[in-house]
Amino acid sequence: VFKFDKATVAGCVVIDGRIKRDNKIRLIRDGIVVYPTGEGQSAELASLKRYKDDVKEVLMGMECGLTIKNYSDIKPGDIVEAYEEEEVKRTL
What we know:
- With 92 residues, this protein is mostly beta strands.
- It has a single domain, classed as Beta Barrel (Elongation Factor Tu (Ef-tu), domain 3), CATH 2.40.30.10.
- The chain has no helices and 10 strands.
- It is globular, with a radius of gyration of 14 Å.
- The termini are far apart.
């Protein structure tokens, strides 16, 4: 975790799947979702970088740096869980 004047950057390793710039995320600390705090809410990434380059996605096993929009209380050991919401049309 690196703190700067405007943001807190989390240095991460993708341990499963991939993380995309437009994924929704949850921040998990000690098994509890700490951000977003409300049920049914979602958070977004403010930035996703690999080295100094902005990237659209990072694959499993790769390192990246990320910031979370409107949140800066990231601590070492926190887990960032990224997911996609997909609308499925009902059929009768």
